[in-house]
Amino acid sequence: MKKEDAEKRILKLRELINDYRYHYHVLDESTMSEAAADSLKHELSKLEEEFPELITPDSPTQRVAGRPLDKFEKVIHERRMISLSDVFSPEEVREWVARNYKLVPGDIKFEFFTDIKMDGLAMSLHYRNGILEKAVTRGDGLVGEDVTMNVRTIENIPLKLRGENIPEVVEARGEVVIFKEDFKKLNEKQEKNGEKPFANPRNLAAGTIRQLDPKIAASRPLRFMAYDLITPVEETHKKSYEKLREFGFQTSKQDKVFKNIEDVFSEIERLGETRGDLPFGTDGMVIKINDRKIYDELGIIGKTPRAAVAFKYPAEESTTKVKDIVIQIGRTGAATPVAIFDPVEVAGSTVRHATLHNADEIARLDIRIGDTVIIYKAGDIIPQVKEVLTTLREDDSKPFNYEEALKEQYPDLEFIRPDGEAVYRVKGLTSDLILKRSIEYYASKPALNIEGLGEKNVVALVDSGLVKSISDLYKLDKNEVRKLERFADLSANNLVEAINASKSAPLSKFITALGIRHVGAQTAVSLANEFGSIEKLKDATEDELLAINDIGKVVAESILAYFSDEDNLKQLEELKALGMNPTFNDPSKLPLSEKSYIITGTLESMGREEAEDKLREKGATITSSVTKNTTALIAGEKPGKGKTDKAEKLGIPTITEEDFLRLIS
C-alpha cells in the first residue's frame, strides 16, 4: 500500500475506533461488536507498524502501557487543586449560604449546582490542541505527580478531544474510580487465581495510579469521571459539565441546577435514597454556587473554596458482636452464611444480620462466633462485615468450620462445591428444599400473595408428592388436597380457588414471583410498565433493559440470563398452558397516574405493603420520603413527625386513612 493511501486509511480507522470507544466506554452504548472493534484495532496496528512515521500521540494504539518508570516527576498545578469543606445537616448548609450572601451585593440571588461526590482519586488532565499532554494527581493541592503513562491506559479518557473549535489549552479535572461491578469481577478473578482480594475500589484505584509499571494500570478497570473544567472558563458550573461531555468525557449524570436551597435539600434526600444504586462509590453530594464569576470572587479560605461544600451522609460503619453464624438456603440452592449480631444502627437504620457470602469470605475475614466486627452498608443498602477486631477476641475462640456447620444445620442434605466456584450448593437443583423456597416466594405477599400457601402448607404439598414444580400448583385437585393431614374440605377448596385466582394477577406481581435474581417488587413494576407482557419482556434486548431508569447492567444481565435458561422457559410455557394470564393496565390510563404518595404511621385497615400495592394498582408511584413532587402524605396512627413536618413545610396535603380508602375504592 502506498503511504498516502495508508495515511487516509489510518485516519479513517482512528476516527471509527475512537467513536466506538466513546460510545462504549462513556455512553455505555455499542456501535459494533467487540470482535469487530478488535479487528479494526489490529488493522490499524499493522498499518502503523508498516508506516511508523504516521503514528501520532492520539492514536488508539498509543493507549497501551509503556515501559516502567523509575519515579514520578513532580508538577506544579497552574491552578490549585482544592478540597471541599464538609457539612452534615441542612442547618449547616443554610449557614453556609448565609455566610456567602454577606460577602456579595444584596441584589444577587444565588443559583445552586449539585452533583454526587464520587469516592476516587482526584486527577487533572491537560490537553494541548485537543491532544492529551499530561495527567497530574492532586498531591498537596499545589504540587502533584505526573502519572500520564498510567492514565493513558484508561479506556474512557479521550486521547483526542471530540468536537470542533477545540481551544488550544484545556484542563479537565475529575476522579479516577473503579465501578463497583468491575471491582467485584476483579476480586472474583483474584480469588479464582488463589490471590488475596482487594480491600475496596477507592484504595485500589489510588494504588493502581501510583504504580510505576503502566502495565498494572492497563490490567485494571479504571475510569475517569470528570467533574470540573478549569480551562476554558465557562459562565456556570452547569455549562462546564455540558462542555466536558461535548469534549467526550464521562460524568456522573447526577448534576442539577436549583433556584433555591429548599430544592437542594430535596435533592440531598433523593440522592441519599438512590446513591446505593449508582455504579460507583460515593459518600456525599457537592453543592456549589453555579455562577463561576461569583464562585471565583468569593475566593478560598484556608484550603477550601467559600462557594462550595460537600454534604456528607450519615456514618456508614458501626461495631457489634457476632452472636451466631447461620447458613441459609436460597431459591437457587446456594448455601449462604449469615452473621447474626446484636442490633446496631448503620446509616440511619437498625441492622441485625449481614451476609458473609461464602466459605472463602469467612476464611478471609477469619470471622468467629463471639467476635467484635465492623459493619458497613455496601451501597448504603446491604449490610456487610468489613473487618474483625481480633484484638477483642476471646481466648477460647474457635475458627468457624463451614462444612461441619452445613452438616449440623442441614443433616438431611448433601452439598457440593463445583470446581472454580466459592459457593456450596444443595446437590441436585430439584431438591425439595429449593422447590419449597421457590413456592413460598412465589406465593408470598410481595409476589402473588396466594392466601393459604404459607410455609407449612407448602411443605405438606411438596412432601406428599402432589407438587413437584410451580406449575403443579395449577393442577391441584381439591379432592386430593383434602386427604392431606393439614386440610379439610373448606381449606382445600379455598386453597385451590386462591391458586386459580392468581392466574389473573397483575403482571408486575407475576414478574416478582418468578424470583429473577436482583428483581424486586419495584423493578418488576418498571418492567411491567415498559413491556406490558411476559412475551415482550422475554424477548427484550440488553439495550432495551438498560434504557429503563432503575435498571443497571447487573440487573439487565440477570434478566437476560433468566430468560435464556431452558428450564425457566419450559416452566413459563407450562404456566401459560395452564391458564396463567397476568393482567396489565397501562399506568398512564389509571386514575392515579402521575400521582405520588407516601405512607407514614400504622393503618388499621391493612398493612403498609398491601396499601402501597393498592395505590400502585391505581397507577400511583410510592416514595419513601416527602418531596415537592409528592401528591399527598397518607397518615395513619402514630405518623412520623419528620415526614408530617416536612409535608407541612412544603405545603403537601396530609390525608387520613379514611381518605385513603376512598382514594383506592
Number of beta-strand segments = 24
Could you say how many structural domains there are in total?
Answer: 6
Shape: globular
Count of separate DSSP helical elements:
25
State the helical fraction. Answer: 25-40%
Largest sheet: 7 strands, antiparallel
Mean pLDDT: 86
Low-confidence stretches: none
Structural category: alpha+beta
Please indicate the percent range of residues in DSSP E strands (runs of 2 or more).
15-25%
CATH class of the largest domain: Alpha Beta
Separation, N- and C-terminal Cα atoms = 78 Å
Q: Predict the CATH topology of the largest domain.
A: D-amino Acid Aminotransferase, Chain A, domain 1
CATH architectural name of the largest domain = 2-Layer Sandwich
Supply Rg.
Answer: 29 Å
Could you name the key traits of this structure?
665 residues, alpha+beta, D-amino Acid Aminotransferase, Chain A, domain 1, OB fold (Dihydrolipoamide Acetyltransferase, E2P), seven-stranded antiparallel β-sheet, five-stranded mixed β-sheet, 20% strand
Structural summary, described in words:
This protein is of the alpha+beta class and about 675 residues long. It folds into six domains: about 60 residues, Helix Hairpins; about 230 residues, DNA ligase/mRNA capping enzyme (D-amino Acid Aminotransferase, Chain A, domain 1, 2-Layer Sandwich), CATH 3.30.470; about 110 residues, Beta Barrel (OB fold (Dihydrolipoamide Acetyltransferase, E2P)); about 70 residues, Orthogonal Bundle (DNA polymerase, domain 1); about 70 residues, 5' to 3' exonuclease, C-terminal subdomain (DNA polymerase, domain 1); about 80 residues, BRCT domain (Rossmann fold, 3-Layer(aba) Sandwich), CATH 3.40.50.10190. It is about 35% helix and about 20% strand. The protein is built from 25 helices and 24 strands. Strands 14, 15, 16, 17, 18, 19 and 20 form a seven-stranded antiparallel β-sheet that branches. A five-stranded mixed β-sheet has the order 2-13-10-3-9, with helices on both faces. Strand 23, helix 24 and strand 24 form a beta-alpha-beta unit. Helix 1 runs antiparallel to helix 2 and helix 13 packs across helix 14. The longest helix has 24 residues. The chain is globular and about 85 Å long.
